[in-house]
Amino acid sequence: MRTSHAIRRAAVPGCYPAAWLFAALFLAQAVLFFWTATQRRTEYFSSTGWTRVVGVGLIGYALLYPFLTIAFGHRYPAAPTFGVPCPTDIMTVGALLTSRGRVPAELAVVPVIWGMIGGSAAVLLAVPTDYVLLGAGVVLATLLIGQRFHPRP
Question: Which of 42, 46, 69, 75 has a CB 3.0–4.6 Å from the CB of 100, allowing a cystine?
């Protein structure tokens, strides 16, 4: 119930003004992913090395997210499920880490922003399931900075 209440509060104008900004960012992200998919610019699950291992691990974590939230004490239906922003962002970061070559910066901006915002909220609000979100955002941001100076093969 808490999750649905939070979603209702975010959807009602004036309750959480930044919700509209986040909604616009996530919509822009979806459009960018669709555009890149049609251009065939990014190949997922084709990287090698640590980025693939971490990426697949994050994807697995995101898929287990509903069960982990229950293990950490949330009860259904109050437990956040896969469709909420945090596990979706974790999965997105994981998919980007598995891409071959350079991670397109235009696809990484929103996941990094949400990783920092959502991850810091997880720490402040003591939501252990979302601690990974902050780490995923940091890893992706570090990779983006690093690839500017040392492109991935």
Answer: 46
CA distances from 57 to 21, 28, 40, 85 (A): 29, 26, 24, 18
Q: Which residue from 110, 96, 90 is spatially nearest to 143, judged by alpha carbons?
A: 96
Is residue 136 within 8 A of residue 94, CB to CB? The reply is yes
Encoding tokens for residue 134?
Answer: 């902050």
Q: Per-residue pLDDT for the chain (153 aa), expressed as one digit of tens each? A: 444 444 445 445 555 677 788 888 888 888 988 888 888 777 788 888 898 999 999 999 999 988 888 888 877 766 666 667 888 899 999 999 998 878 888 889 899 998 988 888 888 877 888 899 999 999 999 998 988 777 655
Query: Which residues have CB under 8 Å from 29's CB, separation 6+?
Result: 92, 107, 110, 111
What tokens does 18 get?
């930044």
First to last CA, the chain: 47
CA–CA separation, 47 and 1 (whole Å): 40
| Coil, helix or strand at residue 40 | coil
Give the global pTM. 0.80
